[in-house]
């Protein structure tokens, strides 16, 4: 299941940087079912592997996620 979520996250992030709630909502709109814990773990795994960058937006006080440029 985690691979499916990870692939979905990478596919969603091809549209551009998003916060985790936007990513989650897009995956749910596509019909994927997962628990909040499964989603957080999959996103964290992608960040740890270096496939997704996590960076802060100080104005919005949120973290954004984006695909690394070498993963397109």
Q: What brief labels describe this structure?
A:
72 residues, alpha+beta, Arc Repressor Mutant, subunit A, three-stranded antiparallel sheet
Commentary on this structure:
This is Transcriptional regulator. With 72 residues, the protein is an alpha+beta fold. It has a single domain, classed as Arc Repressor Mutant, subunit A (Orthogonal Bundle). It contains three helices and three strands. It has helices at residues 2-13, 20-29, 36-49, and strands at residues 18-19, 52-57, 62-67. The protein has a three-stranded antiparallel sheet. The longest helix is centred in the middle third of the chain and has 14 residues, at 36-49. It is globular. The relative contact order is 0.22. The model has no long low-confidence stretch (mean pLDDT 93).
Mind sketching the topology for me?
Layout: H1 2-13, E1 18-19, H2 20-29, H3 36-49, E2 52-57, E3 62-67
Helix pairs in contact: 1-2, 1-3
Low-confidence segments: none
Helix content: 40-55%
Topology pattern, helix = H, strand = E: HEHHEE
Q: What is the straight-line distance between the termini?
A: 22 Å
Mean pLDDT: 93
Number of strands: 3
Gyration radius, rounded: 11 Å
Query: What characterizes the major β-sheet?
Result: 3 strands, antiparallel
Strand-pairing-aware structural class: alpha+beta
Can you tell me the overall shape? globular
**CATH homologous superfamily grouping:** Winged helix-like DNA-binding domain superfamily/Winged helix DNA-binding domain
Described by its quaternary structure, the protein is single chain
Number of helices: 3
Record the strand order, biggest sheet: 1-3-2
What share of the residues does DSSP label as strand, in percent?
15-25%
Q: CATH topology, what is it called?
A: Arc Repressor Mutant, subunit A
The CATH level-2 architecture is identified as Orthogonal Bundle
Q: What is the top-level CATH class?
A: Mainly Alpha
Count up the domains: 1
């Amino acid at each position: 299941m985690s691979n499916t979520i990870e692939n979905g996250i990478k596919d969603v992030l091809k549209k551009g940087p998003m916060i985790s709630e936007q990513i989650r909502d897009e995956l749910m709109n596509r019909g994927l079912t997962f628990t909040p814990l499964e989603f957080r773990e999959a996103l964290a795994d992608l960040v740890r592997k270096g496939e997704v960058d996590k960076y802060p937006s100080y104005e919005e006080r949120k973290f954004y996620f984006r695909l690394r440029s070498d993963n397109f």
